[in-house]
Amino acid sequence: MNRRPTHPVSQHAAPHRFRLGRAGILNVWQYDQQEFAFGDGRLLLRGKNGAGKSKALEMLLPYLLDGDARALDATGTGRTTLAWLMLDGFEQTNRLGYLWVEFCRTDEDGSEQFLTVGAAVRASKSTNSATPFFFTTTLRIGHDLQLVESGQPLALDRLRAAVGAGNVLDSARDHRTRVARELFGLTDAARYRNLVQLLHRLRRPTIGDRIESGGLVTVLGETLPALRRRRDRQGRPQPRRSRQRPPGPRAAGADQ
After folding, report:
1. CA-to-CA separations, 56 to 12, 33, 43, 62, 230, in angstroms, rounded
2. For residues 222 and 107, what is the distance between their CA atoms, to the nearest angstrom?
3. Is the pLDDT score of 104 beyond 60?
4. d(CA 40, CA 43)
5. DSSP state of 3
6. Structure pTM?
7. CB under 8 Å to 209, separation ≥6 — which residues?
8. DSSP letters of 57-70?
9. Is residue 140 within 8 Å of residue 101, measured between CB atoms?
């Protein structure tokens, strides 16, 4: 799982867009140090019930995109919290951990660009609380940036020195604004909020139950923006093509 797969430019549908490359968990919940390698932006986690597959996803995405700790639990029950992840079964007084996701893209000249989005989470057993500090950087964890120093998670002041103090934020709102701009090229907060909301809804365990009933199409239609009508060479709107039957989930997602 720790190998980084190669991504031939000719085989990727959109090589100039950021795609998921790697992700990692360091000293959070029951994870000591784990790195996940994505294959062409995709990741398959296999394991027995209770092995931590769902918890890994809850900790990483979409949390690192919006910083909303209230929505960590994929079921919507609120049972998973940052404090619980950091302090459950932990005997010491304080704990520091890291969550991170690396995105990569290939420029037209063939060079690869990387963007790492992460959070350092500091927890205190005496106050039963956990505080995240979000960061974005073009440095690659394990290559240009080491999150373990002298056998311990990198201290916050050392993180700030490595990535730049201005790239470490304690505000989830400011973090969302930065991720929307640097990762998605969006400056419209409402549009980015709709995008993240869609990710939260699609990761619910019951989403598969709605495919046959057409519920998934409804979710996509409610969340994604409407399509712009095509125009001819004179700038006049072209009529939409009629469909013989309603599109399935794959077609709906592709049209968006």
Report:
1. 26, 12, 12, 11, 41
2. 33
3. yes
4. 9
5. S
6. 0.79
7. 215
8. HHHHTTHHHH--GG
9. no
